[in-house]
Amino acid sequence: MQKLGIIGTNWITGQFVEAARTAEAFELTAVYSRTAAKAQQFRTDYEAGAAQDYTDLATFFIAGDFATVYIASPNSLHFEQAKQALEAGKNVIVEKPAFSNPTEMATIQAILKDRPDQFLFEAARHVHEANFKIAQAAIQALPTINGATLAYMKYSSRYDAVLAGEEPNIFSRHFSGGALQDLGVYVVYDAVSWFGAPESVDYQAEILPTGVDGKGVATLHYADFDVTLIFGKTVDSYLNSEIYSGQTTIVLDNAGTIGTVSRYENDGAQKTALGQAPLANPMVAEATIFAEIIANRDTKRYHELLQLSQTVNQVVYQLRQSAGIVFDAD
C-alpha cells in the first residue's frame, strides 16, 4: 500500500482512511492537526497507532513519511495547502471543491506542468462509483438529449448555528463556503461529465446573512437543451433526478449519492432497473482509482480527471458570479 498523510481530522477524513484501508490502496502514516490531542484521537479512532502526529504544517511536509496527502480542511485553505504539498514533492488528493476560483486552479496547473511526475486529484467521489458510470452509459445510449433536472438538497447540521446568528466555516465567505461550493459541486460534476461544458449559466440563489448561498436553482444552457440544477443545505429534499430523451427518461434517486438508476420508456409502461447496490463506504472507488493511477503512472486517465476538475471549477465560478457571491479568496 502507498503511504498517506492527512490534513484534517473530521468525519470525512476518517471515511477516506477507512476506504483506503478497505481498498488496500493507502496506509495512513502521518496526521496533521492544529492540536496534538485531535491527531492522537484520530489515530486511536481509526486504529492507526503507528502513524506520526504533526501540529506544524511545514514539518509535516518535510519530515512526514508519506508520498500522497489527503486534504480535507476548510475550502479556503485547499489552495495554499495543495501548493505547499506539491512544492514538497507530494501527490495531492484534495476534497471537493478543490479550489475557490479559476485563478487558484490556474496556479496549481502551472505548478503541475513543471512537476510531471506528481499527481493532483479532486475527491469528487461519486464520479468514480459504479452507479454514476451506469448512469453515464445509459445517457450516452440515448438517441438525443432534451434536458435534465438534477437535484441534491440536504439539511446541514451546521445550519442551526447560522439561524442562531453564528457563522460556521461551511456557511462563510471567508472560508469559501455555501451550498454551491458543497452539494452544488456534485450536480455540476454530473452535468459536465454527462453533457460537457455549458455555453452559459445562471444561478438564482437564496443568500444567507453570512453572505453565501443556502440553496438555489441553477440553469446550464447548452445548444439544444437546458439542465436545471437544484441544490441546498437549508432543507431536505427527496426529489428524483431525471435526464430526458423524448419518451425515454433516465431516473436517479439522488444526483449526489446515486443509489438507484432506472430507465422509463413508452409513457412509463416499461421500467428497467439499471443500477446496483452501492458500496457501504462511497469513497472506496475513488481511493482505488487514485492509487491505481499513481502506481501505474496512468497519465491519460489522470489528465482526463484533471481536465474535468478544471471545467467544473470554471462552471462553479461562473454560477457564483451569476449570483453575486464573493469570497475572500477572490
TrEMBL record:
<dbReference type="Pfam" id="PF01408">
    <property type="entry name" value="GFO_IDH_MocA"/>
</dbReference>
<feature type="domain" description="Gfo/Idh/MocA-like oxidoreductase N-terminal">
    <location>
        <begin position="3"/>
        <end position="118"/>
    </location>
</feature>
<dbReference type="InterPro" id="IPR036291">
    <property type="entry name" value="NAD(P)-bd_dom_sf"/>
</dbReference>
<protein>
    <submittedName>
        <fullName>Oxidoreductase, NAD-binding Rossmann fold family protein</fullName>
    </submittedName>
</protein>
<dbReference type="GO" id="GO:0000166">
    <property type="term" value="F:nucleotide binding"/>
</dbReference>
<dbReference type="InterPro" id="IPR000683">
    <property type="entry name" value="Gfo/Idh/MocA-like_OxRdtase_N"/>
</dbReference>
